[in-house]
Amino acid sequence: MTENKDVEVTKHEKKTDSSKVGVAIIKYGAYLVIFFGILWFLINYVL
Fold first, then answer.
1. Where do transmembrane segments lie in this chain (predicted)?
2. For the chain, how are helix, strand and coil distributed in percent, rounded to 5?
3. How many CB atoms lie within 10 A of CB 46?
4. Is the pTM of this model over 0.85?
5. What is the pLDDT of residues 1-47, one digit of tens each?
6. Separation CA 39–CA 31 (nearest Å)
7. I need a labelling partner for 33 at 20 to 30 A (CA). Which of 12, 17, 22, 23 fits?
8. What angle do CA 28, 30, 32 make, to 5 degrees?
9. What is the distance between the alpha carbons of residues 47 and 30, in angstroms, rounded to a whole number?
């Protein structure tokens, strides 16, 4: 009464894409630099 069973094992690995995180940090960092640059210009030359 021995039964041979084929068992298929699949492994699912979640891949984290760290390059997307880096791109987002650079993009929003550039937005902040531009924002503070404009703010600095307004404070120094307009007011």
1. 21-43
2. 60, 0, 40
3. 6
4. no
5. 567 777 787 887 777 777 888 899 999 999 999 999 999 999 999 87
6. 12
7. 17
8. 70
9. 25
